């Protein structure tokens, strides 16, 4: 009897505790409460964060959503309490598309802790109208055929030098080196800067910053969020010094570099003649430089690993790149944007990598009014978590979704909302074309002349803040021998140079 009473008392207390959040957040909804999606709001204060973190720090991050499906069925929407707010997780393509494209009903709803780290004046913290204006001004520097064509040569130079250097270093952290490489590219585009000291300092602080983005907002020494806040403070100080220096050089008419993103942000005026403040300029730079190198570096690493793991896919992708090199006009050096866009099979490899890995597994929105989605009510003021990972691994859309299979894209166009590697709607990632260009150029040169030998193929994977091997893909880059077509201009140039040296020796 004592045992029964003890168990009953424990279950009763547990029921009361787990009902506190429901009572606190749902009681004010009145009749709308009956039409909420199924789910639970977890424990007081922490909500569902422990179960979320536990799943994403295990080898099976999808177990977090699986528990909701097991308990409540395939409803597609689930109520939770995460990142300090009552929220609705959305996991179906139709619902995701609705949330991402309905700007009259939904606005950005990122956790306040994330906004604090990325910037209150960045794209995730500003109004819809301000976002449209800044996006229009800044997207011109990272998208469109004209600017992308200008970047091809620079990206090629960085990639070729990087691969050549890594091949002589022995063991390297492949992901770490890739992040440095993509950061160098984005620094050139946004700040015309290649200062090693500045780049290393910025990239180091960005690494710390990202660990805090998905962490619990505990501002206590030793916790990831506290370290991330300190990293942001250092980033802001570095950018402020760069803005001050740029203003001083412009005042003295000493600027000789090409016009870059910082110039654009410093020159822009609204219809009333108002220019951006230093805080606004810095927050946009913090956001763009972070997003502009993290995703590209990680996807390049995963695409390389997938290609190495599947020799038949590697050979097919390599054959396409060899054909592109073979068909170059006589005398042409390097790639053109047109040739990059002819890499049809490689594009499928990249899309499949984006789908399987799902670099950004969730984005945040907030309902500006009561909205009906898939038959359920999302209350005004509640956050909406668009769970990309679920739609990318949906068995109804993708056969064997965990399998890496670029051929699944042959003649296949996914329905709206089922492929969202760069988000969707008006807030689609503005640098998506630049990211795919970087990835394509890197894989082009890697496939032709290199291979990666991992030091620890059994290394476990971590999923926060982003999916990666725990050892940052420790491995050795090896240069391979390529069969040279004697009709290629590169071969002829090499032969001419060798002949000239022979004549000099004679």
UniProtKB/TrEMBL annotation:
Its cofactor is heme. It holds the Pfam family p450. The keyword Secreted does not apply. GO terms for cellular component: endoplasmic reticulum; membrane. Pathway: Plant hormone biosynthesis; gibberellin biosynthesis; Hormone biosynthesis. It is found in: Membrane. GO terms for molecular function: ent-kaurenoic acid monooxygenase activity; heme binding; iron ion binding. It is a single-pass membrane protein. PROSITE patterns: CYTOCHROME_P450. It comes from the Eukaryota. CDD domains: CYP90-like. Heme binds at residue 429. Keywords: Heme, Iron, Membrane, Metal-binding, Monooxygenase, Oxidoreductase, Transmembrane, Transmembrane helix. Belongs to the cytochrome P450 family. Catalyzes three successive oxidations of ent-kaurenoic acid giving gibberellin 12 (GA12), a key step in gibberellins (GAs) biosynthesis. GAs, which are involved many processes, including stem elongation, play a central role in plant development. This is Ent-kaurenoic acid oxidase.
